[in-house]
Design brief:
Elements (H helix, E strand, L loop, with lengths): L2 E9 L4 H16 L4 E9 L11 E2 H9 L3 H17 L11 E2 L3 H12 L3 H15 L6 H10 L4 H8 L5 H13 L7 E4 L3 E4 L4 H13 L5
Parallel strand pairs: 1-2
Antiparallel strand pairs: 1-5, 3-4, 5-6
């Protein structure tokens, strides 16, 4: 009999390791699908909440934030590209030139959860930013992506032109910050078990099976 798990995936759409972690988690879930069922919820986290609308050059941003040299930056980019390829996610490093504010993307993800399309929107936002270099703070881009995921274009525009879901997103951000989540991805299973970072598939698979063994049957 399958065991039911709840997974809170705390992440940002501008975080490359979140894309890697999601791909690895999904592969792990597929591998244990005969034994485990999971409800996946994406929770908001902003890597750069003070980022202005125009964004910042990614190389400049990484050097300022982490003190990385150009050679370290290049090695990290290649490691990310390779890890993404291992889990079926394509990083187009030449397309992604800037870091942007992602708060509005999180507002749309909150709405998409209510519409039952959060996973589709999350994946589409990650692909658009990391694969195509599109701006996840641009309302026109967000509306197009939402519509392509089967969400109502007019409703998406109305949300972005208002403050709708802003309070709910900030409350969720504060909830996880208050519980010690200060880096992402943070994958919380059954509200108790934390897995940090873009771990390999086998790490997620072992954790899922171990936690499922203690869970109540679905």
């Amino acid at each position: 009999m399958k065991k039911q798990l709840t997974i809170d995936f705390v992440s940002d759409v501008s975080c490359p390791w979140c894309a890697i972690g999601l791909g690895a988690l999904q592969q792990a879930l597929a591998n244990v699908g005969d034994r485990v069922e999971a409800q996946l919820h994406f929770q908001p986290f902003e890597l750069n909440p003070q980022m202005p609308a125009e964004g910042q050059d990614i190389g400049e941003h990484i050097r300022q934030k982490y003190g990385s040299s150009d050679s370290e930056f290049a090695r990290t980019r290649e490691a990310i590209r390779q890890r993404g390829a291992e889990v079926g996610f394509h990083f187009n490093m030449d397309a992604r030139g800037r870091i942007y504010n992602t708060f509005d993307a999180h507002r749309l993800l909150h709405w998409a959860a209510l519409e039952g399309r959060q996973l589709e929107l999350k994946q589409a936002l990650l692909r658009a930013y990391f694969g195509e270099g599109r701006n996840p703070s641009d309302p026109a881009v967000l509306i197009d992506i939402a519509a392509a995921c089967g969400l109502d274009r007019t409703r998406a525009q109305a949300i972005l032109e208002s403050d709708e879901y802003a309070e709910a997103v900030r409350e969720q951000e504060e909830f996880f910050l208050d519980r010690g989540i200060h880096s992402v991805p943070a994958i919380i299973i059954n509200q108790r078990h934390l897995i940090s970072g873009g771990q390999p598939v086998e790490v997620f698979e072992r954790a899922l099976l171990q936690i499922a063994a203690e869970a109540t049957p679905a």
